[in-house]
Design goal:
The complex is a heterodimer of chains A (about 55) and B (about 230). Chain A has one domain. In chain A, about 0% of the residues are buried. Chain A is built from two helices and no strands. Chain A has about 55 residues and is an all-alpha fold. With about 230 residues, chain B is an alpha/beta fold. Chain B has eight helices and seven strands, in the order βαβααβααβαβββαα. Classes of the chains: A mainly alpha (about 55), B alpha/beta (about 230). At the A-B interface, helix 1 of A face helix 3 of B. The complex binds iron/sulfur cluster. The site of iron/sulfur cluster has 15 residues of chain B, from helix 8.
């Protein structure tokens, strides 16, 4: 994961745009919580500068 | 195998300069197993180049190809018809592959994306160590199968030197003293006599000191021999 985040950073994007968690299919509530948290984080970072002018 | 390490993205961007259309060319042999320039690394680097160049405001068009071996004509020849469309080819092969590309395709510019570091092997997942210096005159039969040319910091033929401390080389605590390893192995095999003979100075003319080397095997050549 650190490798993937490093790749993003070298390119010039925030390393927080990628994240990996280990979670079982029986942990629905925790999954929803993590996804909400991640999407909040991404909203904070704003749209990817690579997409804006697509 | 040849062990390589990818150059940093910053250095690669600098080498590519204002190229618009780039072909990232990987090699399916040594650099694939040293995770520096195989198909996977080609894909990752090509994506990084597309993203970074776009962020910097001069988007590059980046194509990808990986051949079985960049150091043999028969594997790179099929690339010929498409090379004209690229400003630059970025090779992720070792220095041999990069030169093969430049030699075979003199009208294209092939740049190196990998540093060729040494001849060695993965001692465990993610760790590669140097094992051979291609000195052209193998002495492993005299040194308990451990090469002091590649693994002793001073390339001693009659070691160890006075800097060997508790099995570690004085040059760097991360380097096991090759001569300690040689001695221990000889003792273990009951072959200390291997090390009793003083080795004369090595004939370095068979190594790089004699200039670039070449092997010719007439029995294998296809051209008519007189
Ligand atoms: S300490 Fe060992 S490996 Fe280092 S230079 Fe001396 S003999 Fe060679």
């Amino acid at each position: 994961m650190k490798y993937a985040a490093d790749l993003l950073e070298q390119v010039g994007l925030e390393r927080e745009r990628v994240r990996m968690v280990n979670i079982s299919s029986a942990m629905g509530a925790q999954f929803a919580e993590l996804v909400t948290e991640m999407s909040e984080q991404l909203k904070g970072l704003g749209p990817s500068p690579l997409r804006v002018d697509d | 195998m040849i062990v390589g390490e990818q150059k940093t993205l910053d250095e690669i961007m600098g080498l590519l300069g204002d190229a618009h259309k780039v072909l990232v060319a990987g090699c399916g042999t040594c650099v694939t197993v040293s995770f520096a320039g195989g198909e996977k690394e080609v894909g990752i680097l090509a994506s990084q180049l597309r993203m970074r160049s776009k962020l910097e405001g001069h988007p590059m068009e980046v194509d990808e190809v990986t051949v079985q071996r960049q150091c043999e004509w028969e594997y790179i020849d099929p690339l010929a018809p498409r090379l004209g469309e690229y400003d630059v080819i970025l090779s992720l092969a070792c220095g041999i592959g990069v030169q093969a590309m430049n030699e075979r395709f003199p009208d294209s510019i092939t740049l190196p994306g990998v540093n060729t570091v040494f001849l060695g092997m993965p001692v465990e997942q993610g760790i590669w160590e140097e094992r051979c210096q291609a000195c052209g005159d193998c002495i492993l039969g005299l040194t308990a199968g451990i090469c002091p040319i590649a693994r002793c910091s001073k390339q001693l033929l009659n070691g160890p030197c006075g800097g060997s401390q508790n099995g570690v080389c004085e040059v760097n605590p991360d380097i096991p003293c090759a001569w300690q390893l040689i001695w221990e192995r000889a003792v273990k095999l009951g072959r200390e006599e291997w090390l009793l003979e003083i080795q004369p100075p090595k004939d370095w003319s068979k190594s790089r000191d004699g200039g670039p080397r070449k092997i010719v095997r007439d029995d294998l050549r296809l051209a008519d021999m007189e």
